[in-house]
Amino acid sequence: MGVVNLQVLLPIGTGSVQKRRVQALATTTGSRNLNTRANWFTTIRGRLGLTVCDALMYVTGGAAVTRDRTNWDLAGVTPALSSRFSQTRWGWTAGAGTELMLGCNWSVGAEFLYLNFGQRTRTGLNTATTPATYRFGHDSNLWLARFLVNYRIGNLCCGY
Known about the structure:
By secondary structure, the chain is mainly beta. It has no helices and 7 strands.
């Protein structure tokens, strides 16, 4: 017989990921380069699971926050265009995982998370030679697979 388990998590720790996209332009010999880097991200989420013996199987979801930097370049055309954007963005996360107690305070596990920070559209103006307005959009999301080693402070010999 299993026990239903509800927890609220604020993971201490961050990560950094980078995504690069290069696209050839149909009308010129140029290319559009988009490079987005999440300098850090973290989540604030709950998890709801079922405990069977020393194993916890759960679903999780909540808020996610990141600080990302986007570089956009239009290369091989005249005039060359480029922009740099940086901002803190909020989004959401959802996932699932499993955790196994190894003793009173130690556990190991694995989880998969999807983080979505929405779509952003940027508009800029290049006045270097010929005034030109450009606009581009990109969505920021990522999939994470994590392996966990946890130590819980206090006497937790009663399990989850």
